[in-house]
């Protein structure tokens, strides 16, 4: 195979057909230089502004802006906020909105969200709000953002009461994922992101789960080609769900697998633990609870735990059940005295259950902190 063909083989385009707007997710090595052309074809507009953060902007904003200018955009001065979950807050959102206004972006102009899930969430929300909605192109640079947060249109900031409590559904005009950007990601962040990859495999792809358990995605066997394939498969899994249920009235709630307990672990750590690691721990806790309730087999639970542990991700939490329940009580999926949870039954089969807070407390007792007990 010639080099040119090999590069073509690593590229894929996944079409996402949500009811509010259809768009394409471009996955491949070296895609960043195509950003301008993809934005022009999908979002149009005359002017654009890159929103990024202090770690990612020095690495990739010049290349992104060069590509945008080459495609004919009038590129406004970029907006850069402090990296980290601590920035996913209303004051930072307000600064970004003031920044877009100061740069005189119009409603037909384009926000470029360049970064990990934090950037995608807050820049996506800024785009949803600014002038009651302008175009956004998502350019995910972390693995988590490539496989999950850039796709599906959930945007949000956090409140003191919990994660993602203020947000909007706002689909991008396009997603441009360049797996080459992962070359600058730290091993710890790559590992963290694998939590959402494993979640997708548990939801819909038993063969992928077993492949990942044998050969972890954060291991030495992963080259750009494998990474691009796994990212594209993850995007397809998420695409199928969000296309069927964009506003999370049913099926989309399954994407919250591992999140009821995961979000609680994340908030209790004051966001010092990464989102993907917390999802991995929450997923294993729910799998163990499911096994002990007789909802899934020991083998199913073990396959999930094995894959999580093979990636060096946490398979449990040491937080007390009281602390966990204190945070779960603020979960968005709580409706009065009940909470919606996602329970693994088999690999590639999960069930949504509505449980009382008392039942959830029992599941937490069964699934969390059981190692060595
Ligand atoms: N909207 C959704 O559907 C959705 C889905 C999953 C997660 N999320 C949200 O995403 C966030 C987590 O995303 P994340 O893990 O990407 O966090 P993040 O954006 O904070 O990125 C993690 C770290 O990696 C750095 N980074 C990102 N790309 C890099 C690169 N290419 N090279 C070097 N450093 C890089 C960042 O600067 C940061 O320090 C959470 O806020 C979570 O709630 C949203
Ligand atoms: O896209 C979705 O839907 C998801 O639930 C994906 C999750 O991985 C993501 O963490 C999402 O932000 C969680 O949504 P929330 O509504 O529980 O905050
Ligand atoms: Zn998540």
TrEMBL record:
Keywords associated with the record: Amino-acid biosynthesis, Aromatic amino acid biosynthesis, Cobalt, Cytoplasm, Lyase, Metal-binding, NAD, Nucleotide-binding, Zinc
Metal-binding recorded as keyword: yes
Main location: cytoplasm
Alphabetical list of Gene3D superfamilies matching this protein: 3.40.50.1970, Dehydroquinate synthase-like - alpha domain (1.20.1090.10)
A cellular-component GO term for this protein: cytoplasm
Catalytically driven reaction(s): 7-phospho-2-dehydro-3-deoxy-D-arabino-heptonate = 3-dehydroquinate + phosphate
CDD domains referenced in this protein's UniProt entry, alphabetically: DHQS (cd08195)
Residue stretches making up the 3-dehydroquinate synthase N-terminal domain: 80-187
E.C. number: 4.2.3.4
GO molecular function, one term: 3-dehydroquinate synthase activity
Domain of life where this protein originates: Bacteria
Pathway(s): Metabolic intermediate biosynthesis; chorismate biosynthesis; chorismate from D-erythrose 4-phosphate and phosphoenolpyruvate: step 2/7
GO biological process: amino acid biosynthetic process; aromatic amino acid family biosynthetic process; chorismate biosynthetic process
Cofactors, names only: Co(2+); NAD(+); Zn(2+)
Nucleotide-binding is among the record's keywords: yes
Subcellular compartments: Cytoplasm
Domain 3-dehydroquinate synthase C-terminal: 194-333
Similarity remark: Belongs to the sugar phosphate cyclases superfamily. Dehydroquinate synthase family.
Protein known as: 3-dehydroquinate synthase
Organism: Thermophilibacter immobilis
